[in-house]
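notes to self, project folder thing:

trying the whole complex as one job this time. last attempt i did each chain seperately and stitching them together was a nightmare. two parts in total, labels are on each line so i dont mix them up again. if this works i'll redo the older ones the same way
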Amino acid sequence: MADVSIVVVSHSRQLGEGLVKLLRQLAPGVDLHQAAGLGEELGTDATAVAAALQQCPETNDILVFFDLGSAAMNAEMALELTPQSVAGRTHIVDAPLVEGAVAAAVAARSRLPVADVIQQAEAARTVPKILS
Amino acid sequence: MADVSIVVVSHSRQLGEGLVKLLRQLAPGVDLHQAAGLGEELGTDATAVAAALQQCPETNDILVFFDLGSAAMNAEMALELTPQSVAGRTHIVDAPLVEGAVAAAVAARSRLPVADVIQQAEAARTVPKILS
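result (full assembly):
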């Protein structure tokens, strides 16, 4: 079974770096990357996303989480900038950035199959965050 | 109609600060605060949340967004640490941190009633992020 890498795409370098550190604490050992911000400015960059995808181990499935729609567009453009051997293993996940990436990282740490990791991330949309 | 303040509660100072900067760019003029991290360590602190709540203008409704369940617990504890005049205007919103806060900030900038701002934030759970 392939392992799962997670790539965080955010308009904010701080947000992306902070989320990766949080994921690292919650799910040590999971392969994590970020492509966030345009230097200190807010924005995303398809080339930076493509570079992050190519840093992932070549046997891993890659899940991309993003903040805003324009980040998703740059992630999709990144797939066109990477070899099919990378793009074909990459899934842009339509899930909340923080909650989805946390659920995916925890599931990836348990070495669930990639389809299950994606399912856990997508389920983060509906899981209550406040327990009564 | 009261204006809306937004308080971001995150385990990561970087994540919280990055999100506030993103919100400021997307919704200039909206009152924004964060209580994030334990210094450079990961964690949340009810006292810091209470302090952030008390920095909000006293006529504003206050919406709190958070990353993980333990952050929500500290936000709830913060309500017990603040005067009823503050706690009574505060709503802990069960929505995705980034997507909910973005939706709320945009709605608050349009000066929608607080119930509508909360509804927009909660709706971020189900809005597709990838447009086909």
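what i see at first glance: The first strand of chain B starts at residue 4 and ends at 10.
need to look closer tmrw
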